[in-house]
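Budget justification aside, the reviewers requested a transparent look at the raw inputs and outputs of the sequence design task funded under Objective 1. We therefore reproduce one unedited record. The lines immediately below are the structure tokens for a 331-residue chain.
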């Protein structure tokens, strides 16, 4: 064997070992023959849904993240319970997922399936990935090529969510370890956190920072004081805990880098947000994204592409659901 042949063999072996079979089967033009217009069909449905309610954007983006981080990007978070609220979506960590995210995928799926050539050819998991890209682009963020070829998972359990999703009170160390377990770097973590630029939160998710912190004022000292007072006005102590406010007080409807500028000013709504700036290990990345929107967008696209590869189901591992909320009947 020549040295050139040996080098080529080693390279191929390395690629086989480092690329998972599922990742290797994803491709941008996956539906080129079976449903060539799938991207434009999904985008049209998403655009129509977004025009009806602005909650569509953060709800869809959050649904994608919650799906991928638990069992991989397989739309398992969408499955309805078959018995006593035992599905992923019934876990307390998922109860706050807005119905508009689910509705966006359902409407996009119906639009795709209305085309005879495409009927039951495109997975709910891929439609969710495409819809996520579209809500980002339609709210001013970057558009990017979406790798496709995921199948829908057949398993969805309430218990599987435990310890798999980041919590608002996590600090950088816990967040970093959680993201690393999925092959995501610190830069990926900071970039994906930028999705909170169009997010919203229930008062109960951050009330401890403005009422129960162990300080004289009961306010987290890393929180901008005038902003904290503003939060107290919007979320009084006896307010309905389901009351929701926008996470970005500056440009809440635009996908931009204002999230990072807010962090510099002490206006990160969650501890998990503000810790990205207060911790020296991630502060430089925050400062870069705050000063350079292009750098943020490029890092975000790289990170969400990696996110979309987590736990992908292919071959006999999954199916293409006829109904995103229900497993196909075995014939």
């Amino acid at each position: 064997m020549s040295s050139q042949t040996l080098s080529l063999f080693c390279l191929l072996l390395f690629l086989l070992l480092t690329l998972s079979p599922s990742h290797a089967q994803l491709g941008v033009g996956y539906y080129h023959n079976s449903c060539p217009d799938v991207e434009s069909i999904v985008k049209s449905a998403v655009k129509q849904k977004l025009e009806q309610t602005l909650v569509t954007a953060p709800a869809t983006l959050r649904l994608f993240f919650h799906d991928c981080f638990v069992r991989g990007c397989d739309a398992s978070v969408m499955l309805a319970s078959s018995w006593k609220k035992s599905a992923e979506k019934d876990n307390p960590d998922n109860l706050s997922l807005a119905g508009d995210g689910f509705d966006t995928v359902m409407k996009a799926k119906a639009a795709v399936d209305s085309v005879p050539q495409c009927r039951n050819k495109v997975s709910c998991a891929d439609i969710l990935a495409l819809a996520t890209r579209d809500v980002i682009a339609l709210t001013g963020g970057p558009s990017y090529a979406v790798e496709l070829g995921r199948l829908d998972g057949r398993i969805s359990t309430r218990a599987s969510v435990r310890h798999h999703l980041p919590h608002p009170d996590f600090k950088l160390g816990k967040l970093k370890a959680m993201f690393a377990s999925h092959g995501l770097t610190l830069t990926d973590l900071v970039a994906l956190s930028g999705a909170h630029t169009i997010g919203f939160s229930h008062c109960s998710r951050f009330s401890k920072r403005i009422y129960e912190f162990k300080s004289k004022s009961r306010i987290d000292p890393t929180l901008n004081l005038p902003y904290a007072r503003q939060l107290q006005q919007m979320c009084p102590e006896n307010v309905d805990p389901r009351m929701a406010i926008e996470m970005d007080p500056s440009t809440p409807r635009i996908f931009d880098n204002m999230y990072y500028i807010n962090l510099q000013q002490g206006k990160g709504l969650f501890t998990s947000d503000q810790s990205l700036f207060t911790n020296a290990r991630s502060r430089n990345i925050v400062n870069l994204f705050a000063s350079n929107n292009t750098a943020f967008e490029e890092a975000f696209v790289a990170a969400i592409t990696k996110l979309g590869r987590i736990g992908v189901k292919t071959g006999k591992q999954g199916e293409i659901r006829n109904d995103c909320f229900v497993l196909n009947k075995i014939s």
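Residues 126 and 150 are 6 Å apart (CA to CA). The mean pLDDT is 91. Computational costs for records of this kind are itemized in the attached budget.
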